[in-house]
């Protein structure tokens, strides 16, 4: 420090002294037995598992016996498919171990009901022709205004030339629809002058009567008025 101040006062720049690293010499640790070379034997073999003197090895020292086919567990019994009749359950349910669900019934299905016969329509009387007739503006009602029609009044219109019928509470003039009906005029005459809702539903419930006969609406079906005097 003193030399640094003297050089600074004399106007000379100080000369930096490089740091010289100090190398430390580490002597190897001395052995307890100096002058004697000790050799350690290493065993690289894999140890036995389980140990040679363990209880597990003593229990498995016997060679397992190979079972024959007769000693093995037999397969589950499967009924012979050749003796089974489709749709008929086995005679004895105890003797059968089939995984299939038993038949629900052994009765024959009922025969389908007789289909309603359709008649051959005359040319110009197809469903498209009926739709064209409704939209043509032709008067198919036969009345000026809608009416409240009791069953006694409905019964008066039961001829082929003047046929009214009620479906779902609405009364229609079905006279013009006779030649267009696929079931024929005879079927329509069964509901002429009366409420034909039940017959219509049992015959063709999928048909929309309101859309088919909207241009033939004449009124609404009401209960018969009472004749008792007050």
From TrEMBL:
Q: SUPFAM superfamilies annotated for this entry?
A: Cytochrome b5-like heme/steroid binding domain
Q: Which GO terms describe its cellular component?
A: cytoplasm
Q: Where is this region: Disordered?
A: 1-122
**Database matches in PROSITE patterns:** CYTOCHROME_B5_2 (PS50255)
Q: Which GO terms describe its molecular function?
A: cytochrome-b5 reductase activity, acting on NAD(P)H; heme binding; metal ion binding
Keyword terms of this UniProt record: Heme, Iron, Metal-binding
Any keyword Heme? yes
Mark out the compositionally biased spans (Low complexity).
93-104
Tell me any Pfam family this protein matches: Cyt-b5
- InterPro entries noted in UniProt: Cyt_B5-like_heme/steroid-bd, Cyt_B5-like_heme/steroid_sf, Cytochrome_b5/Flavoprotein_Rdt
Q: Which domain of life is it from?
A: Eukaryota
What's the protein here called?
A: Cytochrome b5
């Amino acid at each position: 420090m003193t030399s640094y101040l003297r050089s600074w006062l004399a106007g000379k720049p100080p000369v930096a002294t490089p740091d010289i690293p100090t190398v430390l010499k580490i002597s190897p640790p001395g052995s307890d037995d100096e002058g004697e070379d000790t050799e350690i034997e290493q065993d690289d073999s894999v140890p036995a598992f389980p140990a040679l003197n363990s209880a597990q090895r003593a229990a498995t020292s016997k060679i397992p016996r190979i079972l024959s086919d007769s000693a093995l567990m037999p397969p589950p019994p499967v009924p012979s498919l050749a003796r089974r009749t489709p749709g008929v359950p086995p005679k004895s349910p105890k003797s059968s171990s089939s995984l299939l669900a038993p038949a629900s019934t052994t009765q024959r299905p009922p025969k389908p009901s007789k289909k309603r016969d359709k008649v051959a329509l005359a040319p110009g009387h197809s469903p498209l022709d009926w739709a064209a007739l409704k939209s043509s503006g032709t008067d198919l009602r036969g009345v000026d205004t809608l009416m409240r029609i009791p069953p006694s009044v409905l019964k008066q219109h039961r001829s082929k030339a003047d046929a009214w019928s009620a479906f779902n509470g609405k009364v229609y003039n079905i006279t013009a629809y006779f030649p267009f009906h696929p079931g024929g005029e005879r079927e329509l005459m069964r509901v002429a002058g009366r409420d034909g809702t039940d017959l219509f539903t049992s015959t063709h419930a999928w048909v929309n009567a309101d859309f088919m006969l909207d241009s033939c609406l004449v009124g609404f079906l009401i209960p018969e008025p009472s004749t008792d005097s007050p």
